[in-house]
User: Fold these one by one.
Assistant:
Number 1:
Amino acid sequence: MMTGDLILVLFVFTGEICLISMESENVARGGQAAQSSTRLDHLGRGTPERAIDGNRANVWSQNSCTHTNGETKPWWRVDLQKTYKVNSVNITNRKDCCHTRINGAEIRIGNSLNDNGNGNPTYVLIQQLCAVIDSIPAGNTKTFTCNGMEGQFVNIVIPGENEILTLCEVEVFGTKKEDNGENVARGRQAAQSSTRLDHLGRGTPERAIDGNRANVWSQNSCTHTNGETKPWWRVDLQKTYKVNSVKITNRQDCCHTRINGAEIRIGNSLNDNGNGNPTCAVIDSIPAGNTKTFTCNGMEGQFVNIVIPGENEILTLCEVEVFGTKKEDDGENVARGGQAAQSSIRLDNLGTPEGAPERAIDGNRANVWSQNSCTHTNGETKPWWRVDLQKTYKVNSVNITNRKDCCHTRINGAEIRIGNSLNDNGNGNPTCAVIDSIPAGNTKTFTCNGMEGQFVNIVIPGENEILTLCEVEVFGTKKEDDGENVARGGQAAQSSTRLDHLGRGTPERAIDGNRANVWSQNSCTHTNGETKPWWRVDLQKTYKVNSVNITNRKDCCHTRINGAEIRIGNSLNDNGNGNPTYVLIACFAGIH
């Protein structure tokens, strides 16, 4: 079935072409209609819902037209129930009488019910305006283009005195606004700088996330701080979200200007109670009792703060709604179940080790020493901590929890390194991040963008340094499988074999599935000393080779492999050594 926002149907009849455009759906059907007044006759005709009954009948007796009283600024409104991008509005005018009554009417679209919705933008002077209706011929339907204006309410209003508004049909064509996500503030944890409690206990921070936009103090749904310097309110979303928008409902019955100048801040830090996070918006004003939307364009954060800079300020919020989606999953914490090690362990006065490395991967973010969940090295040159993830992962991020009760600056300057090498105890692997600082007791996230490695190290360069970590969480996904080891079961050959008295050194030793790396273990190959020695495995068929792992000898002569070439192809020319080069082994230090 064809789908789309715009369907073009072309009919051809003896050279005459008719083009029919069907743009989205009529979203007014099923909405709720209201108007400023209703002039009812003895049959009860003229009610607002007549204009969205799906019937373009345009004669009064057909019982399908609305009718207000003669009044100042008569209006009609449809509530679409949610925000739409409105592409066009069709209006059908009355035919049997009074078709000029519609002249000068304005079409207004928006999300506000200020002035019954008549305060929304009036689409015509600039691209944001839909139309001022100059005229609609008697009985005709006229289309007004609205260019995707966003709103839940569509109003038609006639400015002036002693006016009557009659509409025989209003059709609103649009598409649902792209989903900004759910209100992720509901059910979370709220806090604020202070609470001014009255005798009924009103004003607490959770009032702003109770799902109720009631905006009068006596309705018991607004927060209230004391008068103070830099009052703030915060919601902890419990995890990081991409925040698309924040809606704030202002108080109606008093003091609506208090919100002026407040800042919306979003991020993962609790530095300065979260008020140091990046700014989404500065609130210039919100009309009394109104709800205003602030666009945050996917800013990422666990904490959403509203703070008013300045002295002797009061912060009152009647509802805060945070719309967003969960941040793309960084994977599971793959450090749990890994093996931890560190450069040294600090001994207590009795010589008992305390601060063991596995404390940093115990799943506990407790950050006070007495809680027995932090690591501790001695004071030394270049102290380090490492977790072996047991296999290679793509590491997306690393969370580090710093100690709270003491010495939080010790972590400053530490490096996070990720890779597959144990050279220099793993401290020579590539750097994910250098830690400038982590506030006392805080957990900070460092983005590693899918760096690959089995080992994650945290190391502090310098002398007489101490490394303490209260938790390290490594979020990542398993590296994509390179396939099976297709050398097993292949046929091995080499240029020559140096056999000792036990017959060791044959070519098949290299594909026996055993990484034993000492000669006496009888699992290593050996050629004679010769020109251009080679080893080859015949895989029996053609494969796409993703990677080759080579284990080097440990007990002797590990530099012999240096300069060797790995060649892969389908030719046996020069014993297969003429095939394309996969890689040149520059050096091979240690055991791999």
Number 2:
Amino acid sequence: MASKKNARGHNAGTKKDGKHVGSKNGKKGEGLMGSSFFTWFMVITLLGVWTSVAVVWFDLVDYEDVLARAKDFHYNISEVLQGKLGVYDADGDGDFDVEDAKVLLGLKDRPVPLDSTSAGRAEETVQPSEEEPELEPDKPVVEEAIFSNVAQENAQPPPVASEPEEEAPEQEYTADDSEGQEYYEQEIQAPDPDPEDEVYGSQSMDVESEIQEETTEAVVDAVPEKEPQEEDAAGLSEPEPEIHLAAHTEEEAVKAEQTQEEADQMEIKEKKKTKEKAKKMKPKLLNKFDKTIKAEIDAAEKLRKKGKVEDAMRAFEDLVSKYPESPRARYGKAQTEDDLAEKQRSNEALQRAIKTYGEVAEVPSAPTDLVKLALRRRAERQQFLGRLRGALVTLEKLVQLFPDDVSLKNELGVGYLLLGDNKRARRVYEEVLSVAPDDGFAKVHYGFILKSENMMAESIPYLKEGLESGDPGTDDGRFYFHLGDALQRVGDKDAYKWYEIGHQRGHFASVWQRSLYNVDGLKAQAWWTAKETGYTDLVKALERNWKTIRDEALSVMDTERGLFIPEDENLREKGEWGQFTLWQQGKKNENSCRGVPKTCTLLERFSEATGCKRGQIKYSVMQPGTHIWPHTGPTNCRLRMHLGLVIPNEGCQIRCANDTRYWEEGKVLIFDDSFEHEVWQDANSYRLIFIVDVWHPELTPHQRRTLSPI
């Protein structure tokens, strides 16, 4: 019995020991490790799943941004993931993305696939017409190129020199605005007078808009809207209380509240008219022969649109050589030469393009729309080069070929204005208005002509109705400027309402600062101190030597010698105002400096003044009883210094924006003449000052070198 018990006890102990030994030999441990491995695998898996859920649910990662970045680097995310994650495609687009994750999480319904028939129909509805190759919108319009590009000039590379032209010298691949901008030198600022007629340079006419806007409505919708500019840092964008004009009474303040709504209505009207034109029939650019070689033309055009200008040039040259009777191939060659000129900034290439555009119209059986498009572009590029008479010949030819096209007559009128032939331009616009009395483009230009003839009251309704029409080419800062100016001169307080609308439409920096040749981002304030300009050395030199400067001026103030030229810029309401110029557009007048040698020697030490291509250095004498109308300078790129030389005790004052100040002998006043300013001389004797323009201190050396003269 004992042995049995012992046996049991032994067995029991063996079993117990077995457990212990079993734990040592690892048999039971194997089971535990297998279980642990599986458990940890599940935990990690679940953590991964719920991390993905959290990422999508709480938008911890912007998958749309990731996908967009991948596209920027030309990676095809769908192809990379399709083999690995295609099984999780839940929305049927062929890959796994954030939308699929949202479907799997129940955040989005699973889409129902279209059947092949409906899908086929959907594709058919979006296929473009294959009749003709799409033409991309061509270069910026000529008037913008000639008269509106100053705000971006600081971003342009240095000018490229070229050989002189037959009709106008070409200094660089840019607009030669020596003729076209003359008007602004007369009406907006006060440089040396020009004996010629007032020259137009104030419209923004798109010479291809009539055809380009018809190509597709989508192009119109793609044009960004102009947004009103924000109030400048100096807080001068809002009209201020009156000083002399009573410009901003309580009644004016109430009217000012309506200007934004009126500006919005004008913009809506303009967009509506533009879209209506876009709905017209697409121009026909291929004749029967060109349709047979359409594939070859399309291939060359595709290269041009992709920016492969050299390849496109070879392709179109081959086409013209192979098919000399093809007007469309020749037009493509002209466009490519045009693109090449832009790319190389080459006048020579542009002249070749102008020649080829003219050849298009000479090809027999050239489609009417193509002839019109080619000649319009030819005239535009001729104007860009300053070949204004050549452009006028082209425009006259267009009017002869298409006598019923009012838009071409409008462009012809602009051509005459650019040459200063206001009489012929007036006849053209009178003819247009006789057959199209509601043509807004003709109205604003006719109003401009009347104003240039000092017919202020008569010009106002044409300018106003033209702007209110919203017609293409009317929404231009120059017409807001001239309407406001005309209203001011007849004593109508609505002038500031129109200045405000012009500001809201983005044409003026503020109601007060209405210059049109601007560089963005420059500090804007009406009055400056010498310290603020950084030109303290110049100011000190002028004030220390003011008597020498005065005495030399008095020595040349001889009416018989005629050195002080009467102001002839239509800025005077009454009185007499003369000037004697030493530097103009950064160029020294040697003859004038021989009369005042000490003054010129003094100034040659200060390049900020003598090198200011957008300003002048001159004496200014004003007789008693003179009033200078409120006006603005043409650019925000300069500041103007006035050194008092002979100042009567009382009666002489200058207002800039809403602040009126007075000259003192031997002291310098500094203001920004791009802000509205006005002068009164009600003393008993003449007032003599010395005017020195300097670069705006925030312009970089590169900008000072490359900005065009004004």
Number 3:
Amino acid sequence: MHVDADEEYVQSVYIKPPEAHQIIMEPLPKRLLDNIKERLRVEWLMNTTIRDVIFHMFYVSVVITMVHGHRNIYSSFLCTEAVRSLFVKPSIGMKMGKVSNTDDFEKYLHSTFIPAMTDITSDHDYATRGSNHYLVGTYRLRQLRIKTDVCAPIMYGLPHDCKGPYSVTEEETRYFDQSWSKPLTGVDGTSVDDKSDHWKYRSTWDLKTLPFPGTHGTYSGGGYVLQLPAKVSSHSDILSGLFADKWIDQYTRAIFIEFTLYNPNVDLFTVVVYLFEFTNVGRVFPINYEFTSSLYHYSTDYQMVVLVCEILFICFTCLFIYVEVKRFKQLGKVKYFSDFWSYVEISQLSLSVSLLGLFIKRFFTINNTLAELKQAQDNGYINFHSAIFWDFVFGYVSAVLVALVTLKTLKHVRYNKRIKIVTKTLSNIRPVYIGYVFGFAVMTTSFASLGYSFFGYSMDGYKTFYDSWVSIILVLLGVGDFVGLQDMFRYAGPMFIVAIVMICQYILMVMMTTVLNFGRLEAKHELSKRKRKMALIKYMRSRVKLLLDMK
């Protein structure tokens, strides 16, 4: 007997009922299912955290290699100290810190500066302090002056030929004929042919020099420039004639000595700026700045590794921007900005993008400066100010980025119980802490005003409001100048210190400690209710022990 096709199909899909002896599994208990779900969730969270930590550590390694790859900080420090031992704190000659008037300045040039330059530029058969350095081009003196008769008479019958402090608005910009008493009328910058004439003003744009901050003012990049010739043996006579011609007089407010040194042993440039501020009270204040850095990049195998890290950094930055934009769209504006780490991410991306722009600016500025150096062939002064400025700005922004990226590590270990207690404590005391900071600022500002008004006439640490505020902070840290205050003000000085310590240190500091303690106890109490959420670290430890076959 044959069955038709329909019956064959029905028999092929027919499922036999279970036999009586077959075991049917009962559904799992709800509690067990919840535990399995929690374990799977923790395992997923663990895997995600481990992945983020490894990814973050790789990114930190890339950033640190990129930042420090072109910088040898220790060698830069030693090179800077070597330059200072020649010009600032020489073993023979006048130290720069001893310069206090015009005569001292002339003595410093002849007894210290010119001999040091002679040592650097001379050929030696033996090692000297300056034999490891090479003078790039020549050096120059740049003077900034003020106009005459810039202030009105204070009282009739008294001398009214006053000389005010330096100000950009009162800066002298006229052209003179070999004497400050002979101004040239009808002459502008376009009609000055001899740019080497130190009696004729040159603007900031002409010199390509940035404004420079000093102790008593911020000075423009222009001025009256004396560029010394390459032959150092003639410099002593040139500078002596400078003082004989009264090139530096009572209207001089700043003298810059600018030059650049190169140490081929460590491939480092040192841009040197020595500023002598001539105040209207008759005192000269010297300041020394040495900026040491490497301007030749990608010349070694290791620096090629740094180049690879820079390319990876660009890729990371693009990836992080994409991730944050996607996260912002998913969470929404309110929820995104309610998270503290969102602000950290925004700051990191802002610094990263700024770093890319600074890198491009620094690269082209350094290349242009080195091209000018090749064209000049050491026949004139080579201005490295812009190159070293952008290099140091790049370094400062990089340092902030490294600190921020390192701080971001706390985000990936936030499941650690101790880290969680710290972050929760700071979160709990935030409203109180803001009020405390305001009270602390008011208290220190009031003492700074008192110190500035009371001791500013005779104490160096209180001569300005900012210096006074710094002195108050130093007192709170235990390093204040108690002996100096006691010598100058026998009774008022000690009373001032005791008042600061009693009010700012004992009262405010004890109050802050109490607030932190209450916040910590509250954080521990809140976290004790969420033990299951803190099981990640313990689970990760157990997995590591299992993989390593450890008991």
